[in-house]
Amino acid sequence: MFPRPKINWLALFTFAMFISNLAGLFLIYRRLQPPSPAPTANMSPSSPNSGTDSERLTQIEQQLASLQAENQTLRRQILGSAVTPPPAGLAAVLPDLDTTAAQSITISDSRFSQIDVYEIPLASSKVVSHLEFGKVYPFTSRQKDWYQVQLPDGIFGWVSAQLVKPI
Q: What is the CATH number of the domain that holds 104?
């Protein structure tokens, strides 16, 4: 039989404490570093509006739209279908937001039998429903190239202005 090797428990404990302290220092170092800015989609360095302010504005607009959608989702969960559109005073905060009420839209091209309705005004966001060709839908506001529509079941969503026309 082979002789059993002796374990130096003190050296093993010291090594484990060293690794533990090293991991703790790494975590502290990571928390002290300022966060790096998140990359934004569809911004090329050669575009004239690719400055820091423009990128930050895009990020803020996306965060605002996401928070509005989350707010509507939470209101639907709490209040059921009694969800109100965004307040008219929002136009003062977001000058690009047109809160024109009591207007409608429909799909502009007959080649599309239906188009997607998104949770926020961003084509990569979650699809919450669809609009069907030939039907008329009320819209509650317009933000740049997007219309916010209210569907018959009370859900609010966003559609691209390129695919619809106001009537």
A: 2.30.30.40
For the CA atoms of 102, 163, 151, 94, the dihedral, rounded to the nearest 10 degrees, stands at -60
Strand-pair category, 97-98 with 114-118: unpaired
46-100 per-position pLDDT tens digit: 444 456 777 888 788 788 877 877 777 777 666 654 445 555 444 445 555 444 4
CB-CB contact of 116 with 127 (8 Å) = yes
CA distance 58 to 77: 29
Nearest-CA neighbor of 148 among 86, 61, 95?
A: 86
Number of domains in the chain: 1
Question: Do the Cβ atoms of 117 and 130 come closer than 8 Å?
Answer: yes
